[in-house]
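Revision sheet: structure tokens.
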Amino acid sequence: MSDFDLPEDSELNQLRRQLNQRYAGLEKYTIDEQGLKAFILRLQNNKDSDQAWLKSVAAFLGSGPLINGKNVAQAEYRLVEIACRLKELALVHAEQLKADKGSQATLIRMVSEHGECSQVVYLTDELKKQANAKIAELKLNDVDKALKQAMLIQLMNAL
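Predicted:
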């Protein structure tokens, strides 16, 4: 399970236990009811046998039972995507636990032909007020969406 940074030779029950522990409670931190949250809840299922649990997770990823290799490519693709999103969610959650009271940890991620970068940013009420004041000075109500996006990218590049 390299997508989850777990040893490839892990026993199924060990893999299940590690994923359960690693992502326990993260469903509270996503609004994606049909995707990430549903996947996390499947990982948390302790009622089924290990085999039934694995079939449930695989069926979710493949949007149906994986019969005779059908839906396998879709399941593999979704696994990579969801594993990446889970890692990001776990990172933000861990940073939020370390943050000062009243701060909001947010992950900023930018991907372009020049590569990708990500950074955790801590927002406080005071920083939000200062940012909103600067935004008001710019009078962005008169600026179209494309220019706002270009400004955002340039600001992120300046970080």
